[in-house]
């Protein structure tokens, strides 16, 4: 493939953008390709190269790049009526009503402008509601570019993971390994009266794809209730992708106190949201005293895109289609890995997927998960499958990024560019796309 135009654009970008990009994950070595346009389940770069797209904007594009007529019309109508108003609109009420009807934990919702803003606001809300300061998060979990969760370390011995964050922020953040029930009990035994909330993704989706072991979320629910703390599910990635319209919390049967959203809820436009029990969400100003506000919150174009995307998904069997293709893809990958790289782990559920370049595996495969790791104790891979983010980080991350990703790109497959971010199937993908992708995996592995 020729990348002359992308290289030229990157050269220009380096002069005016730090690292040549506006989000660090796009800084692919030696340089990223520059997108020109989308085409259904494909993306076309500035040099005219066409790829099957499984990045899907890092998750928001449930329907793919070509919006259905009803979604496109709603977006164009709203944009033609004026970009924004500084006043509420009916469409934000309609989207709120839709979410409240379908998501178990949500009785009331506040829209914001990004997943990061949603998790920042959720942490502030939990602290304001409980009158406590400490937040428990998962080691290697990701909740956006916010000071309270950009920490590293173990337990209460944490420090900021980025320059520019005062140490005092990390003093109030406690980390535990995902899937470690003993660790969560120990933390609450030591700090329970000071913990405002536990915040976790239902499935780790930004550090590989790691499922909860059986009973883990139930333990979080029980422990937080026993100590008067809140349970926050960060469903920015899984929301309206895993578990359909009920989100991952409905799939796992555990109802948090607060849920954060982003990505699909805005139909591909900038968005975030914080939903939960009415008595908690009403602590936000102006109903309560926890300050939260934003000029672009509830933006009418975003609200229209999100509402019509979810309506379309509800009426057109979108989840059946993407989940079927996702299972077909993961099942095919499982067979390929068993034959060519048995130490690797196929992960994912519904329309999410990933091969994790883990280093060890069982001598033989018996009763293994056939379409993505489910953390089943009876599976022959159970002791080898990643249980938390550190297990993923111990894999062959350099091989994934420097050799495998490039090999897939050269075959016309666009994956998220490292071992950590999830990959996604969209409504516009076809069985032919899946078959072509599986052939590319065989070659690249």
From TrEMBL:
| Class in the EC hierarchy, top level | isomerase
Report the SUPFAM superfamilies cross-referenced here: PLP-dependent transferases (SSF53383)
Q: Which InterPro entries match?
A: 4pyrrol_synth_GluAld_NH2Trfase (IPR004639), Aminotrans_3 (IPR005814), Aminotrans_3_PPA_site (IPR049704), PyrdxlP-dep_Trfase (IPR015424), PyrdxlP-dep_Trfase_major (IPR015421), PyrdxlP-dep_Trfase_small (IPR015422)
Cellular component, GO annotation: cytoplasm
**HAMAP family recorded:** HemL_aminotrans_3
**UniProt cofactor(s):** pyridoxal 5'-phosphate
A GO molecular function assigned to this protein is: glutamate-1-semialdehyde 2,1-aminomutase activity
Name the family the entry cites. Answer: Belongs to the class-III pyridoxal-phosphate-dependent aminotransferase family. HemL subfamily.
Q: Which residues carry this modification: N6-(pyridoxal phosphate)lysine?
A: 263
Task: Say which species the protein is native to.
Answer: Halovenus salina
Can you state which reaction this protein catalyses?
(S)-4-amino-5-oxopentanoate = 5-aminolevulinate
Q: What is its EC number?
A: 5.4.3.8
Query: PROSITE patterns recorded for this chain?
Result: AA_TRANSFER_CLASS_3
Q: Which residues cross the membrane?
A: none
Q: Which UniProt keywords apply?
A: Cytoplasm, Isomerase, Porphyrin biosynthesis, Pyridoxal phosphate
Query: Under which name does UniProt file this protein?
Result: Glutamate-1-semialdehyde 2,1-aminomutase
Involved pathway(s): Porphyrin-containing compound metabolism; protoporphyrin-IX biosynthesis; 5-aminolevulinate from L-glutamyl-tRNA(Glu): step 2/2
Q: Which gene encodes it?
A: hemL
Chief subcellular location: cytoplasm
Among the GO biological process terms of this entry, one is: protoporphyrinogen IX biosynthetic process
Q: What is the lineage of its organism?
A: Archaea, Methanobacteriati, Methanobacteriota, Stenosarchaea group, Halobacteria
Q: Which Pfam families would you find in this protein's record? A: Aminotran_3
Instruction: List locations, semicolon-separated.
Output: Cytoplasm
Q: Which domain of life is it from?
A: Archaea
